[in-house]
Each structure stands twice: as structure tokens, then as C-alpha cells.
Amino acid sequence: MPMRKRRAVFIDRDGTLNRDIGYPGHWSQVHVYPYAFEAVRRIRAAGLAAVVVTNQSGVGRGCFSEDELQELHREFGAAFEKQRAALDGFFYCPHYPRPAAAAPAAGCSCAKPGPSLGFRAAAELGLSLEGSYMVGDKADDVHFGLNIGAVPILVLTGYGRKALRDLETGRGRPAHVAENLAAATDWIIEREKRAARISSDHDPRKRSGHDPV
Ligand SMILES: [Mg+2]
Ligand SMILES: [Zn+2]
Predict the structure, then answer these.
(1) pLDDT tens digits along 42-97
(2) Of residues 14, 88, 140, 141, which has the active-site annotation?
(3) 107 alpha carbon, closest ligand
(4) Of 7, 82, 106, 204, whose CB count within 10 A is highest?
(5) What is the 8-class DSSP label of residue 48?
(6) Would you call 14 a catalytic residue per the annotation?
(7) What are the domain boundaries of the chain?
(8) SS3 136
(9) What 3-state class would DSSP assign to 185?
């Protein structure tokens, strides 16, 4: 059997893993949703990578420095590791893409919904985007998931309810809408189990009555 690349659950940060309070510049301002640790633990136990992809325009807006953001992510990662729920990586866009006319040099090609963060994560961590998932609370997260060829799931925490309304009129639909990251994880794991059952049903070695010549 050929070695298959690991797939991932890409997870938005603010409003999905933790309460969205605007622009937290320090770990002490971050309130992780209590169910997030177990969700990440279950994702990893299912053989999927758990990768954070986050737009952090607070850097570009001057709310905090990129060093401070990286320090926050170190502490974020350590807190999850302590809960036996290690995250596989943090990929972020630090830019504040102002309107082109106002600041022609400030444009950025890495913010979600653009696919760059996903491509970078796939290259650095050796992931397959096909068959991966994206969980987030904004329309941009759903579109990012679609843009990288992953299965997009919208959660109703954070800005999720607003996003649901936006997505009703716009283009691009989530494959599933979940109350929060815990419910999204339930859905992913059910889907994975179903896929595993189907592929074992089609495995000729497991078909009864098969008599190899
Ligand atoms: Mg968010
Ligand atoms: Zn960017």
C-alpha cells in the first residue's frame, strides 16, 4: 500500500478555539473554549493533524508586534500540549490589507480566504489538502476551506451566526454547520469512520467468499 500523506483539520483561532475578543496581544487575554482541548485530542487520535490558520491583522494595525504574536502562540501551544492535545502548527497572516488606493504596498496575498496559509502548512508539515477539513466561524474560513480543496465546516461560536446569514446570500457553502468545535469534531470523526467502513467493504481481501487463485 502506498504511503499516504497525513490529512489535517485546519482550525481557525479566534471564535473557534478561543473566545473572539478582538485583538488579543497577550496569552493572558486568551480564553480557550473548555471543550477545545478534547476536540484537538480526538482529532489527533483519529490520525489527523490539527493546524491553526489565523488572520492576525492586529500586527499590521500596530496593536501588537509579530514577536508578541509568536510568544502568544508559544504559550497557546504549550497550554494545549499540557492537556495532551498538541497542535501541529500555527500559520498566520500578520498583515492589515488596507484598501489598495490608500496604501498600494500594504496588500497581502496570505490572508484567508486566500489559500496561502494552507499551502504553506501542507509544504512544511507534509500534509495532503485533499480530504482535509477546515473549521472556522467566518465566511472567509468557509471560502478558505473551499479554496484549498478541504471540507469546510462553519461553527456557530464567535461570528458564526452572522457568517451563516452572509453565506445564505453569497457564494460558497459549508459542508456542515456545527454548534461549536466539539460538535464539528463529532461530525468529522463520524465521517471518517463511515469512509473507513466503505473502503474496507471495497477491500477484496475482506470480502467474504473471495477465493484468491
Ligand atoms: Mg475566527
Ligand atoms: Zn498576509
Answers:
(1) 999 999 999 999 999 999 999 999 999 999 999 999 999 999 999 999 999 999 97
(2) 14
(3) 2
(4) 7
(5) -
(6) yes
(7) 6-206
(8) strand
(9) helix
Q: Give the chain's largest Cα–Cα span.
A: 73
Cα 71 to Cα 35, 68, 86, 190: the distances in Å are: 23, 5, 16, 35
Report, at the CATH architecture level, how domain 6-206 is classified.
Answer: 3-Layer(aba) Sandwich (3.40)
Residue 8 is given by DSSP the state E
Q: How far is the CA of 159 from the centre of ligand 1 (A)?
A: 7
Residues 6+ apart with CB under 8 A from 114: 144, 147
Which of 54, 58, 59 has its CA nearest to residue 77?
54
| pLDDT of res. 97 | 77
Give me the helices (H) in the chain, please: 36-45, 66-82, 116-125, 139-147, 160-169, 181-201
12, 20, 88, 137: the catalytic one is: 12
Ligand number, closest to the Cα atom of 98:
2
CA of 158 to the centre of ligand 1 (A): 6
Per-residue pLDDT band at 213 (split at 50, 70, 90): very low
CA-to-CA distance for 22 and 210, rounded, in angstroms? 60
Distance CA 72, CA 194 (A): 37
- Residue 13 C-alpha cell reads as 483561532
pTM of the predicted model as reported, rounded to 2 decimal places? 0.91
Question: Which residue has cell 496569552?
Answer: 27
Cell reading at 69: 504574536
Å from CA of 55 to ligand 1 middle? 8
Distance CA 127, CA 123 (A): 7
